[in-house]
């Protein structure tokens, strides 16, 4: 693998992603400076209601939720538009330049705008409406209730992921290679997932990179093996890659990650609560429950989420190291693990030895060099 090429690619990806975050942050700061949404938006909406409805006790809460939701749609759309050039650079231009993707621009734009951006806008809009509804009725407790709601939503999304992803993002089909399928079924049974559905993940029309995943929780679990992995890798290498993914199932890594994310989201909501219900209310900032405070709330949430990312990535790296050990132990094939890992890293242009700071800040997986060293017999 050309280490200089990999390092150059990863550096450009990190820079573009940082600029995307900066662009979204700039939208929020601009909204705060311009006082958008304007104060008084919720009362203005309430005046549009018929007099009989406007007099109802729930009218104030309803108008506040509607105002916050409308503002969220506009803010999210503006943030996505501001970040689009940098997201395009990461997901399309750099991947094409470095030979990781064959996707056409119109296909990427359709997928990004109709799926990724639209999902984010819908997710944040629904979350905003739910948060302001909680604030209206439980103003002192909304922050931990929002964290609990995130936990339930994340678990539900994980359970529905195989069906939703198969419908919206990619095409799958039953794995036709009978010897390999039987081999993977035996492996899954040993990992505590007997009868799991094993499917071919068809991404070869868009990408040359190989991949595999175990998606979903409970009865919805599926093993996905990309067609690129099936075409270019030996059965032994495929088995050890799938064993690594099954380790995440066996160790309940997804649920652990969701639990940590819920704690972080709860802390982020608490920070937003303190900013608007605490000192901020005394220095002219919008009060808690005022849609005018939405940009500041989003900014506080973003600061906490970004600040906590080394913690969540650290947990992910620990999961990955444990999954590597599990894959070698389950298959007994250290050589296939090393060769498969080396080939996957080369395809994905993974840096072999990034700096410790870069690893700590940005890496959800241990660097290639560390994973290879840990897998060699001399390191046992």
Task: Describe, in plain words, how this protein is organized in 3D.
With 380 residues, the chain is mainly alpha-helical. It has 14 helices and four strands. It has helices at residues 3-33, 41-47, 51-54, 58-97, 105-137, 142-168, 178-190, 227-232, 235-250, 253-277, 294-331, 334-347, 356-362, 368-375; strands spanning 171-174, 197-202, 212-215, 222-226. A four-stranded mixed β-sheet has the order 1-2-4-3, with helices on both faces. Helix 4 runs antiparallel to helix 5 (105-137), helix 6 (142-168) packs across helix 10 (253-277) and helix 7 runs parallel beside helix 9. The longest helix is centred in the N-terminal third of the chain and has 40 residues, at 58-97.
Q: Topology, pairings included?
A:
Layout: H1 3-33, H2 41-47, H3 51-54, H4 58-97, H5 105-137, H6 142-168, E1 171-174, H7 178-190, E2 197-202, E3 212-215, E4 222-226, H8 227-232, H9 235-250, H10 253-277, H11 294-331, H12 334-347, H13 356-362, H14 368-375
Parallel strand pairs: 2-4
Antiparallel strand pairs: 1-2, 3-4
Summarize, please:
71% of the residues lie in helices and 5% in strands. It has 380 residues and is mainly alpha-helical.
Succession of helices and strands? HHHHHHEHEEEHHHHHHH
**Largest sheet: spatial strand order:** 1-2-4-3
Give start-end ranges of low-pLDDT stretches.
Answer: none
Can you give the helix content as a percent range?
A: over 70%
Give the total of domains: 1
Tally the beta strands.
4
Average pLDDT for all residues: 89
How many helices? 14
Q: How would a crystallographer describe the biggest sheet?
A: 4 strands, mixed
Distance between the termini: 25 Å
| Rg of Cα set | 23 Å
Q: Tell me the structural class.
A: mainly alpha
User: Which term fits the overall shape?
Assistant: elongated
The amount of beta strand, in percent, is 5-15%
